[in-house]
Structures are given as C-alpha cells and as structure tokens.
Amino acid sequence: MSMDGIGVTDIGAAARGGTGPAGDIGASARPRHGIGFWLVAAGFLTAMAFSTVPTPLYPLYQHRDGFSTFTVTIVFAVYAVGVVASLLLVGHISDRVGRKRVMVPALALEVVAAVLFLVWPALPGLIVARLITGLGVGMITATATAHLHELHTVSRPHAGRGRFEVVSTAANIGGLGVGTLISGFLAQFFGAPIRTPYVVFAVLLLLGVVAVAVTPETVDVAERPEGPGWRPQRISADHGDRAGYVAAAVSGFAAFAIFGLFTSLAPGFVAGTLGHPSRLLAGAIVFAVFGTAAVAQSATNRVGQGRRIAAGLVGEAAGLVVLAVGMEAADLAGFLVGGALAGAGAGVLFKSAIGAVTAMAAPATRGEALAGLFLISYLGLVVPAIGLGIATQYTTATTAMLWFSGILLAVLAGAGALSASARRRSAAGAVPARRPSRT
C-alpha cells in the first residue's frame, strides 16, 4: 500500500489542477513533496558518488597488490555486470512496489559494500564489494529518476520539466564526479588512503537511507493494475515513439562509453603513461569530465531538444578528437581538455536521452522505460572498458585508446543519424500523438 495515499493517477490529476480529492491532496502535499524532491536527489547523488570512490584508488591497489591494468578492468567490469544484472531483475519493479521500497534497500546495499571495502581490502573483497555496489546502483538509477519526476510534478504542478531534468541528471552524472574528487582528496591528504573514503561514504549513505525513508511515496500500490507479477526487464522500444527510444538508447550508450573510460582506465593511464601519480589529480581529472557534463546539462536547459542533441553529439566528438591528440602526444593538458569537452557533450547527450524517454513513456511504465535506457547505457559503460582492458594485453594503452576514440566516433555518427530520422518521422506525423503525462 502507499505510504501517503498519493498514487500516480492522483499526481496526474493534481498536476492538471483538477478539483476533488486528487487536486486537494496534490495542493496539501506540495511542501512535503518539494522537500522530498531534494532529499531523494541527495540520496541519489550520494549513491552515485560512492560508485566512483575506488576510481582514484586503483593505482594504490595496483601498487600494493601488484595486479595489472587488465585486473583493474575486471574489477570495473564486475561492477558494471552488477548494474546490468540489477537493472534486468529489479530496476523496473518500482512501478509496482513503490519507489521507496526499491531505493531504501539499494542504499542499504551500498552501505554493505562500504563495510566490505573496509573489512576485506584484498582483491577478492574488492571484487565482491564492487559487485554489490553495482547491484545497488542498478536498483536506484531508474527508480530515483522516476521518483524525482513525480515529486517534482506534485510540488510544482504548473512548471515544466527543466528543474527535474537538471537535478536528476546532475545527481546521476555529477555524483559520479563528486565521488572521485572526494575520494582523491581524502586519499591524498588524510591517513589510511584506501580506508578513509569508505568510512566517510558509509556515514553519508546511512544518512541517505534516512532521507529517502522520510520522503513521500509517489506510487499507490493499491491502484496498480493486476498483472502477471514479476518478470525480468523487457528490452523494448515500444514506449510511444519506437524510433525516438532507439535513438535515446544509442545516445546513452555513447555517453556512458566516455564515462566508462574515465572511471576505469584513465587514472592508471595518467599515473603510468603520463607520469602523474597524484591521487588528487586522478580524482580531479575524472571530476572534470563529470563536472563539465553536469554544467553543460544545466547550461542547455532552455535549448530545444533537437539542438541539444546536436550540441551533445558535436561536443563529444570534438572532445574525442582532442583527447586522441593529447594521448598521442602524451600531453596532460590535451588529455584534460579533451576529456572535459567529451564529458560536456556526453552529459548533454545523456540528459537529452533521459528527457526524451521520460516524456514519451506512459506513467505506469515510466520506471520500466527508464530502466531499459539505463540498462543499454550501462552496457556502454562496461563493453568498451572490457574491450580496452583486453586490448592493453596486446598493444600499448595509447594505441588502445586511439582505437576506442575511432570506434566511438562511429557510434556517435550512428546516434546522430537515428536522432535525425526520429525527428523527421515525428514532424511528418508518423509517430501517433499521445497525450503527454504530467506525472
């Protein structure tokens, strides 16, 4: 049953300013939902930040235990496998069981992972902790995004989606950058560099559990239609605009490929090939990629969808070119500028994908549609990273990354073609109009 008696249908009626119980409930609930919006955003950001805490610490693990770059790739891949498995199995069930009943256990899993990092610091413990982290992240990404959308709709029923899009994508992408920056800072200037960051985040995650627990629920389980029960996540583009959904999914894949590069192999590349072993620098480089992504998302808030997609594609492609030149010349400045530019483009591209899918999906399947988008996006996180790790066994890191840049440029070209085709079909009336949901 619902924690506060407000279901998705009630939210939609309240957002339309309707009269009667739904409208009355919506008006009285706005302050609580407004506060809840920021509490969920904080919990979401903390969970995503925790997922990148090990990134600037990988060179320390390598130095301590003597494992290779390929082993780092495996550790990273285990995390991504956890995310994908979680998205397949439970990432979409909040549409039926409620947002909080997924988010609270997800944050609790992250706390368990933080404790494992502390009590089992050997490689097997690192692998298990990363797997559990991935499971928690897979549960929370689509769920928190849908929850934020619904809380925003009740608290600001007559506003557009701008605030929701900025906050949800900033918590997601910005959180990934914040985690590396805090971790790198703590590891650089405080004792016990591979323990202190986990202690800090264990406390923050516990606070996140409390914050989400006191937030209003937005899914009335009693009003959910009877169905076949639990099933794994469907990989379906049938969410109102098939061509648009496919374009959004490919864009998400391309965006997360950049993020995967910088959260797996970039710190080792900077410390080894470029000769800069600073833990704070490693964290700051990854933060720059995600930070510029979040800033670019905010800066393009008022830009139309078509122009925003084009800006994201061009920005990421230009960043890849600069990044490749910087890697070939072993130039840290070029590597930084290219990474920041590619990150900005990827952030805008992913924000556009989130906005498109949220707008096209029906309320009852919004969590499922977002879970599918995140699933495909996280495949972009894991597949290129594993490919790069394997490639470094046979060639230099620089050569492998140059090949990565070339392949990703081709993927971006494909995403651009799909997006243009979807817009043409929509303009020609090939996509049936669906009354937009205000939830």
Q: What CATH architecture would you give?
A: Up-down Bundle
Radius of gyration: 21 Å
Quaternary assembly: single chain
Q: What is the domain tally?
A: 1
TL;DR of this structure?
It is built from 16 helices and no strands.
Helices and strands, with pairings:
Layout: H1 8-15, H2 21-51, H3 58-65, H4 69-89, H5 94-97, H6 100-119, H7 123-155, H8 162-189, H9 196-213, H10 242-264, H11 266-272, H12 279-299, H13 305-328, H14 332-360, H15 366-391, H16 397-427
Helix pairs in contact: 1-2, 2-7, 2-8, 2-9, 4-7, 4-15, 6-7, 6-9, 7-8, 7-15, 8-12, 8-14, 10-14, 10-15, 10-16, 11-12, 12-14, 13-14, 13-16, 14-15
Structure report:
The two termini are 19 Å apart. The longest helix has 33 residues, at 123-155. Residues 1-25 and 431-439 have low confidence and may be disordered. The radius of gyration is 21 Å and the shape is globular. It has 16 helices and no strands. The protein is mainly α and 439 residues long. It has a single domain, classed as MFS general substrate transporter like domains (Growth Hormone, Chain: A, Up-down Bundle), CATH 1.20.1250.20. Helix 2 (21-51) packs parallel to helix 8 (162-189) and helix 4 crosses helix 7.
Keywords, separated by commas or semicolons:
single chain; 439 residues; mainly alpha; Growth Hormone, Chain: A; 16 helices; 76% helix; globular; disordered N terminus
